[in-house]
What we know:
Number of strands: 0
Number of helices: 9
Number of domains: 1
Strand content: under 5%
Helix content: over 70%
Distance between the termini: 29 Å
Mean pLDDT: 85
Shape: globular
Amino acid sequence: MRNHNNGVSYLLRLTVILFGTFLLAFAYYHINYQNHLTEGGFVGLSLLGKYVLGVSPSISILVLDIPVLLVAMLFKGKAFVCNTFVSVAAFTIFYGLMERYSGLVINLQDNLPLAALLSGVLTGLGAGLVLRGGGASGGDDILSLLISEWKGIKVGTVFILMDVIVLALSLFYMPLKETLYTVIAVVVAGYVITLTTSLGKPKLAKMPKIQPTLGKAQNIR
């Protein structure tokens, strides 16, 4: 009976992670990409690296993600990292399918404030659901979560601060107008992430305080 309940619980978390990832892919392609909004987080840093150093984003993303994943393995455990891999893989699939087959065009070039609002709500809800499911949508979200638990700051606030810093640096290669509207989207997303990860009890996946899993094993002995 316990195994059955564990299986149902895992399927529920997996469904939440996949749905959240789908929302992220939808927002990034149909809102951000189609309306020329830029990116924060590790994606924004990788684009900056390409502009300043000529390094391919495919390489710089790995350089940024791998150390964070190793730290997450230590502090959050294998299940969290596995769920993150599921989200990252699903995002690649969802985004690729939308890019190839979706005929939906959401043209908000004449109403960028609405585009920023929609982007913020959808990406915030998507990222928040992935976190509630027990994973993360990428290395930057993991870093935000770890800093949040370390410093006791709301995860959405950390998300906003990190992305605003990256977006400020992105002014080296991005137009001011699109960057400012992306900042609005990031701020909205940060508040939605905080709401999504804190609303309702019990939570789908309890987020433990940072404590190395190795240390837990030693204490049990």
